[in-house]
Write a structure and sequence with these properties.
mainly alpha, about 75% helix
Amino acid sequence: MKINDRNTAGAAAAETARTQDTYKSNRADSAQTGSSGSSDRVEFSSTLGGVSRAIACEGQQRAARVQALATAYQNGTYRPNSMAISRAMISETLSAGVS
């Protein structure tokens, strides 16, 4: 079934204009609030700092591991465990498909 409503385009245009007017009004209000000297303040918990440090430490450890693997590969001493790699790939694929 096909419906041709000629008023739909006009309503959409009016709604768009109304949205733009609201956006302009909100921007003007925020500009006035910002000029009055008030300021916002954000505080994060110490837990967030601990998480950030843990992520940074993990990144450093990963970089060291990648560097060691690259050196072993360049020296020709890198011997990957194909059985462990295949099991990990299958396990990851199965766990991703279950969700």
